[in-house]
Each structure stands twice: as structure tokens, then as C-alpha cells.
Design brief:
The chain folds into three domains: about 90 residues, Arc Repressor Mutant, subunit A; about 50 residues, Periplasmic binding protein-like II (D-Maltodextrin-Binding Protein, domain 2), CATH 3.40.190; about 60 residues, no CATH class. The protein is built from nine helices and seven strands; from the N terminus they run H-H-H-E-E-H-E-H-H-E-E-H-E-H-E-H.
């Protein structure tokens, strides 16, 4: 049969008194009153059924049982302090892991990385690239930078950086560039459109914003990553 532990707050108060040799100093360290420390000591003695301290002049001294408990409690709390300090040190030294779609990372984040390093020189940043829907709860991630729309997850803090603007881009090397400059959005209906497989909603969303029927769009070559799509557009392929 395993004996239950007495209240941990009472043990903590006793350990402080035993280590500092003073009820008053223990109260200062634990940020509680002298009376609160005395009540915790009484609770501990009642739980154990034995006296741990006795008066000596204007102070207190440990009984034999108190000395025995002081040694055990002191060792246990010191190990706890050491372990907590180590965990805090590891947390402070660990990099901040940011998940980001590979295309957004390559086209938007990396060109701004030097400025970020200058503004936050103490930030130890580790980038984790991925495509498609990033799960912000994925193990190992501290935060994610991604394209998303409300409603936001109720269990997460969301910082909206900017409103996304969706629109066609056309290289001057495209054979019909001159024809389409200044043309209305409907001019693209029926034309093969480059599109990212990771964001199939992009062109339909643009069409609805232009009061066009998304069903009339003609989707052409698909690319797994937005980065490859933009490179194809720059080459005049669509």
C-alpha cells in the first residue's frame, strides 16, 4: 500500500522554513504572510501526526523528525528546481519553428529574411516548408504562416498579417500580352489558365470577384507548387 503525500504547499512551506531557519524569511521567499506559513506547518504536522518544529527562544528549531523530513524534502525540492531550470534553459535555447508553404517561403518570406534577422537578432528561427494545408497543431511547430480564411480555430491565436489579393499575372513574353493589356476580365474566359494544384479555389474565387461564372473558366496546366506556376508564367507559358 502506498502512503499518500501530505499537501504539497505545506511541504513547500516546511522546506523553506527548514532551509532558511525562519518562518518570517520563508514567508518572504514564498510571498505569503507569516501566519500563512504557520498554518501550512500546522497542516503538515497534523497530516503526519508528528511534531516537526519546536519553539526555541524567539525562533524555532527542528525536531528529529523535522530533520529527517528536511533532508528528504530539501533533496526533492532541489532536484525539482534543477530540473525546472534545465527545462527553462532548453526552452530558451530551442529555435522557434515556423511552418510555411514552400512557395510562400521561396517567393515572399526568404526575400524578407535578412530584414527579419536585422530586426530580431536574438530570434533563433527554424523554417519548416510544406505544401497544401498546413496543420498548425502539427508536433514540432510553434507557429504557421499560411493562407487562410475565417472562421479561425477557436483554440489558436491568429494574427492577420495582410489581406490576400488574387489576380491574374501575365509575362510580357506571352504571345498575347499586348492584346490582353487593358482588356476586361471576361477576355480570359475560354483561355487555358495555369493553376496550382494546392489552391484549386484561386481562379474560381477571382472569377466570382469579377462577377464571372467560374464554370466558364478553362483550367490548363496544373502545377503542384505555386512557385513552379509562377516560373511557368514568367516563361510566357500561360
Amino acid at each position: 500500500m502506498t502512503a499518500s503525500l501530505p499537501p504539497l504547499n505545506a511541504l513547500r512551506a516546511f522546506e523553506a522554513v527548514a532551509r532558511l531557519g525562519s518562518v518570517k524569511q520563508a514567508g518572504v521567499e514564498l510571498n505569503v504572510t507569516h501566519g500563512a506559513i504557520s498554518r501550512q506547518l500546522k497542516t503538515l504536522e497534523e497530516a503526519l501526526g508528528i511534531a516537526l518544529l519546536e519553539k526555541e527562544g524567539r525562533g524555532v528549531k527542528l525536531t528529529d523528525a523535522g530533520i529527517h523530513l528536511r533532508n528528504a524534502a530539501g533533496e526533492a525540492f532541489e532536484r525539482l528546481r534543477s530540473t525546472c531550470a534545465e527545462l527553462q534553459r532548453q526552452t530558451a535555447e530551442a529555435p522557434f519553428v515556423l511552418g510555411c508553404p514552400g512557395s510562400l517561403l521561396a517567393r515572399w518570406f526568404i526575400p524578407r529574411l535578412d530584414r527579419l534577422n536585422r530586426d530580431l537578432p536574438d530570434l533563433r528561427l527554424q523554417l519548416s516548408a510544406s505544401e497544401g494545408e498546413l496543420d498548425p497543431r502539427r508536433a514540432g511547430l510553434d507557429a504557421t504562416l499560411w493562407f487562410a480564411e475565417p472562421p479561425w480555430p477557436a483554440d489558436m491565436r491568429v494574427f492577420e498579417l495582410a489581406t490576400e489579393r488574387i489576380g491574374p499575372v501575365l509575362s510580357p513574353h506571352h504571345p498575347r500580352c499586348a492584346e490582353w493589356q487593358g482588356a476586361p476580365p471576361a477576355a480570359l474566359l475560354g483561355e487555358p489558365l495555369l493553376h496550382p494544384a494546392s489552391r484549386p479555389q484561386a481562379w474560381p474565387s477571382w472569377a466570382r470577384q469579377q462577377n464571372l461564372d467560374p464554370a466558364r473558366l478553362r483550367l490548363g496546366q496544373s502545377f503542384e507548387h505555386l512557385y513552379f506556376l509562377l516560373e511557368a508564367a514568367l516563361a510566357g507559358l500561360g
